[in-house]
Amino acid sequence: MKQRLGIAVALAGDPDFLVLDEPVNGLDPQGIIEIRELILRLNRERQITVLISSHILDELSRLATHYGFIDGGRMVKELSAPELEAACRKCVRLTVTDAAALARVLDAMGAEYRILDDATADVYQKLNVSQLTLALAAQDCELLDMRERDESLESYFVSLVGGGRNG
Questions:
Q1: C-alpha Rg value of the chain to the nearest Å
Q2: What is the largest CA-CA distance in the chain?
Q3: Which CATH number fits domain 90-149: 3.30.70.1530, 3.30.70.100, 1.10.10.10, 3.40.50.300?
Q4: Would you state the pLDDT for residue 153?
Q5: Which residues, listed in sequence order, are joined to residue 121 by a DSSP beta bridge?
Q6: Single pTM value for the model
Q7: CATH code for the structural domain at 2-64
Q8: 55 and 20 in contact (C-beta within 8 Å)?
Q9: pLDDT tens across 88-112, in order?
Q10: Phi/psi of residue 120, each to 5°?
Q11: Is 164's pLDDT higher than 90?
Q12: Which of 34, 41, 39, 38 is closest to 52 using CA atoms?
């Protein structure tokens, strides 16, 4: 009820811009849904821009159109929701003996990919593993490792700010 009351008081002045600090903190699942829907409705119907500060990253991913990542009081990264989605989308990470050969094979397959270094690439679609392995062998290239990656907003943030030092 405190969150709802705080938002109601803030709205009394008919603002164009609303700052919310941890708006769903301590709420039950139904309360979280209600606050989320309220924030979306305020933006959509009253064109109120809402700045949300939160550590509940999964909830932010349901609301945000733009992200600013802060670490140690400094903005370390700003990006739009589509840019973040592209950074966090599901892919298959391939490790091979020759990334140039892999690029040739993936180009021939019409695959969408990104070369990360001389031995690693992320592929953003399903692959026929048998066909890939045979095509790589024909290029004298070995497939050493293949792992599915699905980076969450949380893991993106942790990798961005160097999460290992906080553990």
A1: 22
A2: 70
A3: 3.30.70.100
A4: 80
A5: 94, 115
A6: 0.63
A7: 3.40.50.300
A8: no
A9: 878 899 999 999 999 999 999 999 9
A10: -135, 140
A11: no
A12: 39
Beta bridge partners of 19: 51
SS3 call for 50: strand
Unique residue bearing structure tokens 């003996």: 97
Q: How far apart are CA 40 and CA 106, in angstroms?
A: 41
- What residue ranges do the domains of the chain occupy? 2-64, 90-149
Q: Answer with the residue of higher pLDDT: 160 or 128.
A: 128
Exposure string over 16-34, b if 16+ CB within 10 A, otherwise e: eebebeebbeebeeeebee
Structure tokens at 106: 């993936």
Within this chain, domains 2-64 and 90-149 share the same CATH topology: no
> What is the tens place of the pLDDT at every residue in 38-52?
999 999 999 999 999
pLDDT digits (tens, 9 = 90+) for 135-156: 999 999 999 999 998 777 887 8
